[in-house]
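Before a colleague's protein record goes any further, I have to sign it off. Would you go through it and say whether the fold makes sense for this chain? Take the sequence as given and treat only the tokens as open to question. The record follows directly below this note.
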Amino acid sequence: MSIVVRDVREHELDSVLALNNAAGPAILPLDAARLRHFFDSAEYFRVAERDGTLAGFLIGMGSNTDHDSSNFRWFRDRHPDFFYIDRIVVASRRRGGGVGRAFYADAQSYAELRYPQLACEVFLEGGNDPALLFHGSFGFREVGQHVMEEAGVRAAMLMKPLCSYAWVRETYGDALPEASWLTRPRVPVRRVHDQAAQRPTGTCP
């Protein structure tokens, strides 16, 4: 069955919270209030469906966001403009099935129209070579390391240049074409039926 990536719906937040807190030490835990904050304010908050069930989620935001993560601040202190992946979680039974790559393709197709780089981190404690290999195969490179003051965990700080950004800026500037998936920011989806336009996915050659 195909993977469908779409904006999160309000009634799915309990399931998203359970996925996050079952993900293990590679993902910081969340509470309901924190997740609600992301739902109300995150620029990008999407879920993946496979076989009609929730397979994971990704939360991201631009560098001009007022976000209190020390990892986010680390990037912002060193880089002026980027799209930050705060967290990506894939259900354990769906790992290795392409959900993570579908998320990164979708997030990149969104970000490269607006930002020159993608940023994220991978925790180094406990052995996380599969995650580092995954990100490396997707074009991310380590630009430093940081110990999170709020968790005491060391993270590899990763960035990926977005090759289409310069062309988009040179061609369109701040005036992207009139298409709903380009011009409309994410807003919380509070109805059962998803009205979000599907964004195309893809990666740079």
